[in-house]
Amino acid sequence: MADVNPGERPLSPHLTIYRPQLTSISSILNRLTGISLLLAAFAIVWWLMAAATSPEAYALANGVITSMLGDLVMALSLWAVWYHYLGGLRHLYFDAGKGLEVGTAEKLGWAVIVGSVALTVLTLIVIG
Question: How would you class 112 by CB atoms within 10 Å of its CB: exposed for 0-12, middle for 13-18, buried for 19 or more?
Answer without folding.
Answer: buried
